[in-house]
């Protein structure tokens, strides 16, 4: 197992993430007509709601699972590349050490990376690949990979990720930005057109769920919503987190680890 093989496996994971992004985009294009609006007869407020909740095709979850598995496998490839110079006996039980807690991590490290140089072991200790350690994301990846071995990663139906700002919100932001941009270093800032992470209850999504309500005075304002595929694994990650962003985040964390341990996998 060479360091080049590690990057090849990582690149395969990146391809799956790219395919996942494309599949989600195609799903979104095919499911644009699921937001409705109605007027509250008593107040005149304009209410936006879900007319329907699109069902995510199983293929999308399968692609996400492939991405997760290849990211995790690239770490195990890395562990093998690190111990390769010390001989076949050290490779027998080799894997990237990821634990639920810091308890027993050092013993697990010695068992999984047998024969690795001391400075390499120090890097692993600094990475802290366990829950709530510096490498918490690696623990999340590990848990999702275990899930993928037994069932599909649980992705929720299309979930609101952002919405355009209301006229009232724009007025408030205009006031804030007019003060902020008086600072020469911040003068290029502009008022955003949308709010990321729409403040609506995301789970469980259901038909008729209210997304936003505009007062009668703003009823002529057309509000837009941005939806995405959300992850629903509450024991591992925040419920409702955008699955594309989360997969990209995990990929970035794995890339950093591969780079950090690169010298251990390439020096004789």
Describe the 3D structure:
The chain has one domain (3-266). 46% of the residues lie in helices and 13% in strands. It has eight helices and six strands; from the N terminus they run H-E-E-H-H-H-H-E-H-E-E-E-H-H. It has a three-stranded antiparallel sheet, with no helix packed on it. A hairpin with a 6-residue loop joins strand 1 and strand 2 (46-50). Helix 2 (58-83) crosses helix 5 (136-150) and helix 2 (58-83) runs parallel beside helix 7. The radius of gyration is 23 Å and the shape is elongated.
What does the radius of gyration come to? 23 Å
Main-sheet strand order equals: 1-2-5
Mean pLDDT across all residues, rounded?
A: 86
> How widely separated are the two ends?
14 Å
Look at the helices and sheets and give the structural class. alpha+beta
- Tell me the major beta sheet: 3 strands, antiparallel
Q: Give the topology string: H per helix, E per strand.
A: HEEHHHHEHEEEHH
Overall shape: it is elongated
Low-pLDDT stretches: none
Give a brief description.
The chain has helices at 3-29, 58-83, 105-112, 118-127, 136-150, 167-180, 243-260, 262-266; strands spanning 35-39, 46-50, 155-164, 194-196, 210-214, 225-231.
What are the key terms here?
elongated, 8 helices, 268 residues, alpha+beta, three-stranded antiparallel sheet
């Amino acid at each position: 197992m060479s360091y080049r093989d590690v990057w090849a496996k990582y690149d395969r994971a990146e391809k799956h993430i790219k395919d996942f992004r494309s599949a989600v985009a195609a799903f979104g294009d095919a499911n644009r007509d699921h937001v409705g609006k109605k007027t509250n007869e008593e107040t005149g407020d304009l209410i936006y709601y879900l007319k329907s909740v699109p069902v995510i095709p199983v293929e999308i979850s399968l692609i996400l699972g492939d991405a997760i598995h290849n990211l995790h496998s690239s770490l195990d490839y890395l562990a093998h590349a690190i111990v390769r110079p010390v001989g076949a006996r050290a490779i027998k039980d080799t894997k990237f050490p990821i634990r639920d807690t810091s308890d027993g991590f050092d013993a697990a490290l010695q068992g999984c990376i047998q024969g690795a140089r001391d400075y390499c072991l120090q890097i692993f200790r600094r990475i802290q690949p366990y829950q709530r350690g510096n490498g918490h994301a690696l623990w999340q990846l590990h848990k999702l990979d275990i899930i993928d071995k037994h069932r599909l990663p649980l992705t929720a139906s299309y979930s609101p990720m952002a919405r355009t700002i209301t006229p009232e919100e724009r007025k408030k932001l205009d006031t804030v930005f007019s003060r902020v941009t008086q600072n020469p270093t911040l003068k290029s800032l502009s008022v955003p057109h949308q709010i990321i992470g729409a403040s609506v209850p995301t789970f469980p999504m259901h038909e008729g769920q209210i997304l936003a309500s505009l007062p009668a005075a703003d009823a002529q304002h057309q509000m837009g919503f941005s939806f995405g595929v959300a992850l629903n694994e509450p024991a591992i990650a925040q419920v409702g987190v955008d699955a594309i962003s989360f997969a990209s985040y995990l990929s970035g964390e794995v890339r950093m680890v591969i780079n950090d341990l690169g010298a251990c996998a390439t020096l004789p």
